[in-house]
């Protein structure tokens, strides 16, 4: 599944992907050179986990967080920012599958909530049987049971204002023959069944939420936990503090407290990191990030991981003028020099080729390169626009029926790299005959209000695949357009409607044979490139920085974020 970044959650939430080998190699070389003054530890490259430094019991850490989530009701549309997943959800919500690395790939692995991997019975109606570990309990000591899975499933399937119902909308029944057994029956096959009750949402406590206002109880933080930590406090605008869940049945945290401090300004965050006020950072790849690493971070360590689930793109609102015209969308694609943008902004990270698919690096084997036909070609732009009845006005801007081809782009305010990209786009599009203005906003406004309501022309953000599954239906299927019919659920914010696409995306969702899934995905790729509902820009690498006082096995998990194993972090011995 996906999220906007902010797993196809927005950065937002969605599944994962992988860049070309050349980019991986370049990152390896770059990271190997990320050394500084004496005493500084070299960076770890190409996704390699750093050697573990023994960690002692007790103590606390303060970690910088680039963005504050809008809410902590993980199944609601307000939970779009992936930072909520990173900061609170992963460490407090029990789930059926974890995302773990096996060999070179990140794959779903049954979590410690389960006694083993669920069993699947294929047929006209797919049945999935879950067996829960009887040792699993909530932070109040009550068992985590099959009733919790049933409550979660029905809240998502039948609820309104749900972030994404993919898979849950196929559930016909949830049987609970005993407290440790849940049998979920689907009305049709669902190839991505492992996403259910996993990274996107996890499992909710029925005994605490049923019959009550779930959203009101969770949106500002909650007191319960089924993970190694629990939320002690969420100071809006300042920080989130986690403390150990003393009743967790798995590996207990080493730290007594972890505080995530909101540090939206990259320069200020780096200054706080270098001065020791912050113990770790997970920065968006800004223009000066690698330069900061190369110039020395006083004994800090870093990991650069190109095998991310991050896909940055220009998201066109297909319901808004002028992007309601396929001709305009194609002309835009021929106006933008994506290769120049990627080289300028990601070149220091070793990424020099634009993305040619909406699938991220961790699911790249299902992707094609059909968007590679879109390279800068102003003659092609003129031909497409003139052929569709557009003419340039006195300002050199294309116009039709008295309406100029002008629009506004929106992204996250304060993101210097995105702001530079917008300026480059503005110039490129002006040369092609389009007028673009810039009006950025906060993550809460963009992903909690504007995007779900379709209140934007052109967007620039990153979708984050949080589970290694190639489904794109939640981002592009017509059934995922938020509206009154589906309770304003779904993340097809671009209002994409492409003839034949729903059927292909449904095949990707339902084919259990991996070869058939890939075939359907490749066919969908052709339709994407033909219609250009939006335009992929680049796969964004992950970067994690931590100071020498931090111990434990530290590495980036492209699905669950940098703090996927926070219970193993501690103060270095």
Present the secondary structure layout:
Blueprint: E1 13-14, H1 21-32, E2 55-56, E3 60-65, H2 82-92, E4 97-102, E5 105-110, E6 119-121, E7 127-131, H3 146-158, E8 171-178, E9 181-186, H4 206-209, H5 214-218, E10 229-235, E11 239-244, E12 257-262, H6 266-274, E13 280-281, H7 289-295, E14 301-305, E15 310-316, H8 326-335, H9 338-346, H10 378-387, E16 391-392, E17 398-400, E18 403-404, E19 406-410, H11 416-432, E20 435-438, H12 443-453, E21 458-465, H13 473-476, H14 501-510, H15 514-531, E22 534-539, E23 542-546, E24 550-551, E25 570-572
Parallel strand pairs: 1-21, 3-12, 19-20, 19-21
Antiparallel strand pairs: 2-25, 4-5, 6-7, 7-9, 8-9, 10-11, 11-12, 13-23, 14-23, 15-21, 15-22, 16-17, 17-18, 24-25
Helix pairs in contact: 8-10, 14-15
């Amino acid at each position: 599944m996906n999220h906007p970044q902010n797993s196809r959650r927005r950065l937002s939430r969605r599944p994962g992907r992988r860049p070309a080998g050349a980019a991986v190699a370049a990152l390896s070389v770059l990271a190997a050179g990320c050394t500084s003054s004496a005493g500084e530890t070299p960076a770890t490259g190409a996704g390699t986990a750093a050697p573990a430094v023994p960690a002692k019991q007790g103590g606390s850490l303060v970690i910088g967080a680039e963005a504050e989530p809008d809410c902590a009701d993980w199944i609601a549309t307000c939970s779009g920012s992936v930072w909520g997943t990173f900061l609170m959800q992963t460490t407090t919500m029990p789930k059926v599958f974890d995302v773990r690395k096996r060999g070179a790939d990140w794959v779903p692995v049954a979590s410690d909530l389960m006694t083993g991997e669920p069993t699947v019975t294929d047929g006209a109606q797919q049945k999935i049987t879950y067996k829960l570990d009887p040792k699993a309990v909530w932070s109040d000591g009550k068992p985590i049971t099959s009733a919790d899975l049933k409550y979660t499933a029905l809240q998502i399937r039948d609820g309104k204002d749900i972030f994404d119902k993919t898979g849950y909308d196929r559930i016909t029944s949830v049987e609970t023959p005993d407290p440790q057994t849940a049998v979920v029956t689907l009305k049709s096959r669902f190839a991505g069944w492992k996403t259910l009750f996993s990274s996107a949402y996890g499992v909710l406590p029925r005994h605490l939420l049923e019959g009550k206002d779930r959203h009101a109880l969770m949106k500002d933080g909650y007191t319960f936990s089924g993970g190694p930590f629990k939320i002690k406090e969420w100071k809006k605008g300042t920080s989130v503090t986690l403390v150990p869940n003393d009743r967790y049945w798995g590996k207990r945290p080493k730290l007594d407290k972890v505080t995530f401090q909101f540090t939206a300004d990259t320069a200020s965050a780096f200054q706080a990191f270098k001065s020791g006020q912050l113990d770790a950072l997970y920065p968006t790849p800004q223009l000066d990030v690698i330069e900061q690493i190369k110039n020395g971070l006083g004994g800090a360590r870093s990991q650069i991981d190109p095998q991310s689930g991050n896909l940055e793109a220009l998201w066109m609102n297909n319901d808004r003028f002028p992007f309601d015209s396929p001709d305009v969308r194609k002309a835009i694609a021929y106006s933008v020099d994506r290769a120049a943008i990627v080289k300028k902004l990601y070149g220091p990270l070793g990424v020099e080729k634009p993305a040619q698919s909406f699938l991220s690096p961790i699911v790249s084997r299902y992707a094609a390169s059909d968007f590679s036909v879109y390279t800068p070609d102003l003659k092609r732009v003129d031909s497409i626009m003139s052929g569709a009845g557009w003419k340039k006005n006195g300002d050199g801007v294309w116009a039709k029926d008295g309406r100029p081809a002008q629009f506004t782009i929106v992204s996250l305010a304060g993101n210097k790299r995105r702001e530079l990209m917008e300026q480059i786009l503005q110039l490129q599009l002006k040369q092609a005959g389009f007028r673009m203005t810039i009006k950025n906003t906060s993550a809460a406004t963009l992903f909690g209000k504007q995007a779900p309501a379709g209140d934007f022309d052109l967007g620039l953000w990153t979708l984050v695949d949080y589970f290694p599954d190639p489904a794109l239906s939640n981002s592009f299927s017509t059934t995922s357009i938020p509206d009154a019919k589906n309770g304003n659920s779904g993340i097809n914010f671009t209002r994409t409607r492409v003839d034949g696409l729903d059927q292909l995306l449904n095949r990707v969702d339902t084919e259990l044979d991996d070869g058939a899934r890939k075939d359907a995905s490749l066919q969908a790729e052709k339709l994407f490139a033909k219609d250009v509902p939006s335009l992929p820009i680049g796969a964004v690498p992950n970067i994690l920085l931590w100071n020498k006082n931090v111990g434990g096995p530290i590495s980036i998990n492209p699905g669950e974020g940098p703090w996927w194993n926070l219970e193993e972090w501690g103060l270095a011995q």
